[in-house]
Design a protein that fits this description.
Elements lengths: L4 H20 L8 E6 L5 H16 L7 E4 L6 H9 L9 E6 L5 E6 L18 H15 L12 E4 L5 H12 L1
Parallel strand pairs: 1-2
Antiparallel strand pairs: 1-3, 3-4, 4-5
């Protein structure tokens, strides 16, 4: 079967869910947040922001399940199911959802710039954009071993997610799209 947006994102959802399950069975400190990017294949700016997060998360020792992107190769039934499944209804895509650990988890969302840029260009909006402020808070919490909080970041919308752990929520979405 050719690699389609649906098969690619379903595979990624399965790997994400498996990682969250294996993490929950481990003792020790968890990465404080999961960064979920929702984009389309044409959202080059959002892809560039994802790469900034990926570099930072790798430096901080995060796992695959701490940073995922869906819709990267085109809109899929998986990426479409994540929005209502995580109660992110009304969220415009491309977007970033930061989901804290806990039961229930809490989500924080922000819309990302859409569309493409000329080849080789990356629009770095500076330090005053919500996604950058949130990344700085993640870096501080992990580096300083302090409590993670982004409640005061302007431009992030707080969303209370349905009951259960993030692994349980992702598992429910996975059951819907399989």
């Amino acid at each position: 079967m050719p690699d389609t947006p649906d098969s690619h994102d379903l595979d990624k959802l399965t790997r994400w869910h498996d990682g969250l399950i294996s993490e929950s069975g481990r003792d020790g400190a968890q990465f404080p947040v999961c960064a979920l990017f929702l984009a389309s294949g044409d959202d080059r700016r959002a892809h560039d922001i994802f790469r900034v997060y990926r570099t930072a998360f790798e430096e901080l020792g995060a796992g695959f399940h701490d940073l995922v992107i869906f819709g990267q190769h085109g809109v899929s039934s998986t990426s479409e199911a994540l929005v209502p499944g995580l109660e992110l209804t009304g969220l415009r895509i491309p977007a970033l959802a930061l989901i804290t650990r806990g039961d229930p988890p809490v989500g924080y969302t922000t819309v990302l710039p859409s569309g493409a840029l000329p080849d080789g260009e990356f629009e770095d909006a500076g330090d005053d954009v919500p996604w950058r402020k949130a990344l700085d808070a993640i870096r501080r919490a992990v580096s300083d071993c302090t409590e993670f909080s982004i409640d005061g970041v302007a431009g992030l919308e707080r969303r209370d997610l349905p009951g259960g752990t993030l692994a349980e929520l992702v598992g429910r979405v996975k059951q819907q799209v399989e």
